[in-house]
Amino acid sequence: MIVVVCLNPALDITHHVPAVSWGGVNRPSAVYARPGGKGLNVARTLHALGADVLLMGLAGGPTGAGIEAALDRSGVPAALTPIAADTRRTFTVVDGAAAGGRGDAAAGGRGDAAAGGRGDVTAFNEAGPEVSEREFAEFRGQYEKALAGASAVVLSGSLPTGLPAGAYATLIEVARAACVPAVLDTHGEALLRGAAAGPAIVKPNLDELESLAGRRLSAGDGPDLAAVAAAADQLRAFGAQAVVASLGADGLLAATGDGRWQARPGAPVAGNATGAGDAVAAALAHGLVLGRPWDERLRHAAALGAASVAAPVAGEFSHAHYASALSAVAVHRDEVS
Amino acid sequence: MIVVVCLNPALDITHHVPAVSWGGVNRPSAVYARPGGKGLNVARTLHALGADVLLMGLAGGPTGAGIEAALDRSGVPAALTPIAADTRRTFTVVDGAAAGGRGDAAAGGRGDAAAGGRGDVTAFNEAGPEVSEREFAEFRGQYEKALAGASAVVLSGSLPTGLPAGAYATLIEVARAACVPAVLDTHGEALLRGAAAGPAIVKPNLDELESLAGRRLSAGDGPDLAAVAAAADQLRAFGAQAVVASLGADGLLAATGDGRWQARPGAPVAGNATGAGDAVAAALAHGLVLGRPWDERLRHAAALGAASVAAPVAGEFSHAHYASALSAVAVHRDEVS
User: Fold this and answer.
1) Which of residues 81-100 of A touch B (CB under 8 A)?
2) B257 burial class (0-12, 13-18, 19+ CB within 10 angstroms)?
3) Whole domain around residue A188: which residue ranges?
4) Cys staple from A224: which of A88, A188, A219, B126, with CB 3.0 to 4.6 Å?
5) Could you tell me if residue A109 is inside a domain?
6) B90 is a domain residue
7) How far is residue B93's CA from residue A126's CA, in Å, rounded to a whole number?
8) Phi/psi at B259 (nearest 5 deg)?
9) Residue A218: exposed, middle, or buried by beta-carbon count in 10 A (0-12, 13-18, 19+)?
10) Is residue A98 part of a domain?
11) How far, in Å, CA of A283 to CA of A44, rounded?
């Protein structure tokens, strides 16, 4: 069983509005509400891969109850620890008329939080509920019990308000004590402290790696691979056993105990990049428990990331896309080091 | 007991964002979620006036459960009939930097849906859940039972998807059969058909009356009182026993069986106009059950409307404001007819 930890799940609410009146009153033509958060995408992806998965995390209030009900309908096994505060929401507005609409659309840039290609997207992401020490201790107890039957754990996403930046580090130490390898996908201080606790894999994206390194890691249009490799090595030196940087259309760069690797997908895929990193994290955990060597592990991860971009909704992919992407990925070991 | 019917309650979610990035990803600095909908404001106001009130309506899904939990905490007695679909949300973004921000802020106009005066406000209002015939029949049964102990009923707000435009008319007929006078505050066809069912009072605002009349009822800066009176008479002829038009800072104009009345508040009040019409409807129902004559009924309604504008949140008012507004209201019977 793979345990997926999602401490800060969200109810993702999306409003499609034919032509947004900013500063006015809008009546959305379509409303979607589904459970979200990076850990949920990872769990959904592993479930779709046929892996035995258990989603763990924190959920509270009516929003938490809504997430649990939706998870139940989706068939993804979950055991969420109840908290007193209400689980967070994210709210995304898709403006159908944005392409030719407001003059500042270009200046504002495109949020990539949802529904890519459908028009101008604006996201409002709540930070997450207050979690008490007692509630986190309760979660930790349930997590320790679940680890007894686990072959790997994935820790993914942001931490809710009130949890210390070392929360993931604590959970990785608990997993190490139970001899369960951990895959960590988060950002900032939680990533840095988590890496120091010695997880099997950390999976930053380019932004997260740049933010940790404190310097730009791109050159011209794409990532500066030598600089990315140096930053990945730094993060390994910090304690992570392997670092897999996800670089969007440029694929993956991995710094591992078995050397440095690159995996490049085939032709770039148009679609929704939200959740592609979660698909990569899911595939890395899957490859880990299947005992795949690094080249195969990365091939599957890059392919699943590409297949996820082609799917309209984060946390989903088509098996046909995955299969065809798999044959297009080019993996090589980097001899320059 | 006054029964307040709110068939389409909402969870009102408000995000305060220091400087909104339209087309980007925003992290709100403050998040508020409270039960809303016109009927809820009426019930809260009557409860604060010390009236014996029962809020009835429809609630479903996790959002409905959240509304019930919040009502329970607020102490407003409620008996909501469960429905299968999820209760609607409204989502309001308050842009702290709007004053000097986007170039199109002026063109977009200001939504008055929330938090007046706090900056640029954009609202996204969901239409409401599908309600089945069986669910509405279940509600109607509970409503009939509650009417046995009721001295008045207030029917307020929009109808959720799936309910016919004649739903309020049906509920008014049921109330008439039980000899319970009804106050109706809604818009469009539901108002027209409701008025035909013979409620004691209908309370349109200027926009709603203009929309029914199919013509402008204002002249220059304010309402054209002769035109408003003619439109109110028309709505009375349609079946309503009395029509009270709420005209914002211009107060109230009433066409009743006891003649035509005007009630003007004192100096204009700065603040949040959302919910002022609901305060007026609450005061009209309160005056009705207390047996106040029209002049006193309108004096209280105009004063409570003004006190509601001074309060920061819809459905609330300060008793001190109410008392001082009461002495400032000028009521007169219109002899020209």
Assistant:
1) 86, 89, 91, 93, 98
2) exposed
3) 2-8+38-84+130-334
4) A219
5) no
6) no
7) 12
8) 95, -175
9) middle
10) no
11) 12
Report helix, strand or coil for A229.
helix
Tell me which DSSP letter residue B250 carries. G
Tens digit of each residue's pLDDT (9 = 90 or more) over A123-147:
999 999 999 999 999 999 999 999 9
**Nearest residue, CB atoms, B28 vs list A24, A26, A126:** A126
A18, part of any domain: no
What lies within 8 Å, CB to CB, of A315 at 6+ separation is A36, A40, A41, A42, A44, A45, A275, A278, A308
Q: How buried is residue B59: exposed, middle or buried, by Cβ count under 10 Å (0-12/13-18/19+)?
A: buried
Tell whether B26 is within 8 A of chain A (Cβ): yes
Strand partners, A332: A262
| Cα–Cα distance, A41 to A282 (Å, whole number) | 9
Q: Which residues of A30-43 are buried (b: 16+ CB within 10 A; e: fewer)?
A: ebebbbbbbbbbbb
Pair B284, B297: CB distance under 8 Å: yes
B120 to B15, B20, B93: CA distances (angstroms): 12, 10, 8
Give the pLDDT score at B336: 55
Residues of chain B with pLDDT below 50 are 99-119, 337
Decide if B183 contacts B152 (C-beta within 8 A). yes
pTM score:
0.80
CATH code for position A263: 3.40.1190.20
The span from the CA of A257 to the CA of A242, in Å, is 7
Chain A residues whose beta carbon lies within 8 Å of the beta carbon of residue B17: 124
Cβ atoms B20, B26 nearer than 8 A? yes
Contact B66 A86 (CB under 8 A): yes
Q: Which residues of chain A have pLDDT under 70?
A: 98-119, 336-337
